[in-house]
Design a protein that fits this description.
- With 467 residues, this protein is an alpha/beta fold.
- 30% of the residues lie in helices and 15% in strands.
- The protein folds into 2 domains: 283 residues, Alpha-Beta Barrel (TIM Barrel); 123 residues, no CATH class.
- The protein contains 13 helices and 18 strands.
- It has an 8-stranded parallel β-sheet with strand order 3-11-10-8-7-6-5-4. Strands 9-13-12 form a 3-stranded antiparallel β-sheet, with no helix packed on it.
- Helix 2 links the parallel strand 4 and strand 5.
- Helix 2 packs parallel to helix 3 and helix 5 runs parallel beside helix 6.
- The relative contact order is 0.13.
Length: 467
């Protein structure tokens, strides 16, 4: 029998220990997060390239009018601040004083600290907390505390939290409202899978969360400070053993994927429909993201194309050496690259299939693409607006010189372009579609039978029953 949840104290009021996962680039917006808070939970406005509106209420397209990357980066930061402020204000109005509103930022997004300061300065009294992951956000506690706002770091291991606590968070312990454990094998979007962990061998989250609680206790953190389980959460009854478990202390739950399929969710109808058609295994944990992090998304034509592109890849030498005794005679137009005999035959085959352009990667390999693909890749790299602190696709870096010092990587893609496009009605098969690995359960869950799309309130009420 499902034990049921009890409300917790958060931001000076009682709320359900249910958090809406923050989904960036215009997905977790005022409608979804405001409704989640109105239902008594903790709604999350994404402060990652959120939408702004004109006086008629229409979304303002984020068009970049300046010439240099540095200037476009400044436009991006202003768009981000203005959009997040607008979304927070609207979400707060919808919440009508119930639940709580958090904002979510990615620490590795371009200008993250400036965006966080800009949003919190203009939304005083409206935001209860900040969730933040994708990197090691050491300054999160300092920034949040300076605005009397809670912070909820997103981590994927006890080791990561220990480093954050010792270096920074222990100095602002009173504002630590929760620690979000985001399971790197189950959660959607970017995650914190380390190089020491096997992406193909998921680990049981219970020992990892137990270790996190032990690390928190070592730091003197009360068991009343919740650990938020994020990634793979669908039916709460499946987590019955976690609730009121003295080994784990207080536990809350984050839902990122299920709120995608609600009436208030702003994603296009085609995206919602596709979620109901997924089967187990249709979500791919991959490393094509220009962030360098692993991430999970629907394995559609967009991701398959990236997979195939990386398969059309050969190593080269700039002089004949070792096995590289054959001069490449396709895809490189007058440049001298030496490859193995087998790779020469493969390259010729790709050339015959229309993949006639070879592009260098930072790893001394060549990938073969069509001339149309090459044109798109080069344009997207040239149009870079610095949406990440460091981008492998364009070589942008948010530092002096604005360069990573590495060759731009054609095996990746412009993440800003594709996430903006899919969120605003672009083709779902030609864009990155983030989702958690439990998304296939939309098809199996009787709650969604006959095409039923719930309101956020109906979803929260359903979750509270254990289903």
């Amino acid at each position: 029998m499902f034990k049921g949840l009890r409300p917790i104290q958060y931001g000076g009021r009682e709320v359900w220990p249910l958090i809406e996962g923050g989904k960036g680039v215009a997905v977790s917006n005022h409608m979804s997060s405001g409704a989640w808070a109105a239902a008594g939970g903790i709604g999350t406005v994404s402060a990652v390239n959120a939408d702004s509106y004109d006086p008629e209420g229409k979304i303002i397209p984020q068009i970049y009018r300046t010439l240099t990357r540095r200037e476009r980066h400044e436009e991006l930061v202003q768009y981000a601040i203005d959009g997040a402020v607008e979304q927070v204000r609207r979400a707060f109005d919808i919440s009508d004083g119930r639940g709580a509103i958090n904002i979510n930022v990615l620490w590795e997004m371009g200008g993250a600290q400036r965006v966080l300061h800009g949003v919190l300065e203009r939304t005083r009294g409206l935001v209860t907390g900040v969730t933040c992951g994708a990197g090691m956000p050491y300054r999160l506690s300092e920034i949040a505390a300076s605005y009397n706002v809670n912070y909820l770091p997103i981590i994927s291991s006890a080791r990561a939290f220990r480093a954050l606590w010792k270096r920074a968070y222990s100095k602002a312990a009173e504002w630590l409202a929760a620690v979000v454990y985001e399971d790197p094998w189950r959660a959607g979007g970017h995650n914190g899978l380390s190089n020491a962990e096997d992406p193909l061998q998921p680990q049981d989250p219970y020992p990892r969360v137990k270790a996190l609680r032990e690390t928190m206790r070592e730091g003197g953190i009360s068991d009343d400070v919740p650990i938020v389980m994020a990634g793979g959460v669908w039916y709460l009854r499946e987590w019955n053993d976690w609730i009121d478990n003295p080994e784990l202390g207080s536990i809350a739950f984050q839902f990122g994927t299920r709120p995608l399929l609600t009436r208030e969710s702003p994603i296009p109808d085609a995206w919602k429909q596709h979620l109901t058609e997924l089967d187990e295994g249709d979500i791919l944990l991959h490393r094509f993201s220009p962030t360098g992090f692993y991430s999970s998304a629907v394995r559609n034509d967009f991701l398959r194309n990236l997979e195939h592109r990386s398969e059309r890849q050969i190593a080269f030498s700039l002089e004949a050496a070792g096995d590289h005794q054959y001069k490449l005679d396709v895809g490189v137009k007058g440049k001298s690259y030496w490859v193995t005999r087998n790779d020469l035959l493969r390259a010729r085959e790709w050339d015959m299939l229309g993949f006639t352009s070879a592009l260098k990667t930072p790893d001394n390999t060549l990938v073969f693409v069509t001339p149309e693909e090459m044109k798109t890749i080069r344009k997207d790299q040239a149009d870079c607006m610095g949406c990440l602190s460091q981008c492998s696709f364009s070589s942008w870096a948010d530092m002096e010189g604005n360069s990573t010092g590495r060759l731009a990587d054609p095996r990746s893609f412009c993440i800003q372009k594709t996430l903006q496009d899919i969120a605003h009605g672009g083709p779902i098969d030609q864009n990155l579609m983030f989702a958690g690995h439990a998304a296939y359960r939309f098809k199996q869950d009787p709650f969604y039978s006959n095409g039923f799309v719930p309101s956020v309130k109906q979803l929260v009420d359903r979750i509270l029953t254990g289903d």
